[in-house]
Amino acid sequence: MKRVVAYLASWPITEGRVSVQDINPQLLTHINYSFANLKPDGEIITDFGAPEEEIYRQLSCMRRENPHLRVLLSVGGWGWSGSFSDAAAYAESRERFAETALRFLLRWEFDGLDIDWEFPVAGGDGIRHRPEDRENFTRLLQAVRQKFDEQEQKDGKHYLLSMAAGIGKQAVQNLELTKIEPLLDFINVMTYDFAGSWSKQTAHPSPLYPEGPGQGCADSSIRLYLQGGIPAEKLNLGLNFSGRGWHKVPAGDRHGLHQPCAPGGWKGEPLGFCHITGTLIKQKNFVRYFDEQARVPYLYNGTDFISYEDEESIAEKVQYAQKMGLGGIMFWEFSGDRETVLQQRIAEILR
Prior knowledge:
The protein is an alpha/beta fold. It is 33% helix and 19% strand. It has 11 helices and 13 strands. Strands 1-2-4-5-6-7-8-13 form an 8-stranded parallel β-barrel, surrounded by 4 helices. A 4-stranded antiparallel sheet has the order 9-12-11-10, with no helix packed on it. Helix 5 (133-155) links the parallel strand 5 (112-116) and strand 6. Helix 4 (91-108) crosses helix 5. The longest helix has 23 residues, at 133-155.
């Protein structure tokens, strides 16, 4: 069965925009609850109080409706990756990371851990990094895998270990692919955010294919991991259930595509799929277009531009994953499709 991995962020739940009850567990194979934080000494921080603990219980109980569903804790993310480099640098902190991960899984009856370090070696905005991250990330995975395997010998349960992986040549080069592959059950490739608030002109954040030489896209990113030695069945293609938008965009000759824009990206409500299609299109008089090269839709109303995913582009990406023999797909993030329109489309194709 193809994997359908859903990232479920904590903040839309605690803000009341979505609930665990909105999830249809029959449409998913894995839920990655996001994100736990970590300290520089390797300790994973998950003590967020009563509301969070109730979420853990609810997620664990979802397996009553779908016994094949697996629930993982995701650690890191863009905002919580600042301590990974320090935590991975020393044997003691790597051991503490593995111990606290296993302790959480056993306490809340979760099935595994997803590591979302953004990004080894390269770091990010204010995210600590060092050249040794490449080797230290492998050592961190080895520590977790060993701890999980030891627990499996005790209780007979296989504990999953996955990671969220970056896009582009640099991200691939900063990983010891052939060494980490045996340690991981699967890899979620974040084949989105090729464009965003940092972009100086409008573009597609989630193109399936490039529009010109050297342009990044989902296809080229997947091929980099395949060329690096990762088996296709261990790769999940990333889908984004939120769009990216820009203001003060001239029309040009392609309805605002590849045009200069106001700095800072979209200002306003989050651009989840359900909000874009249910409210924003009519509210702001958007017209939908489809990029035949990139194979993604976009919206333009004469001044605002949004690139996003819909049923058509999602269907093509799922079919692409099947054609390439990939292990499945993953999506960021559930609240963008709380009415499960896109998830239903994915299920239709996989049937």
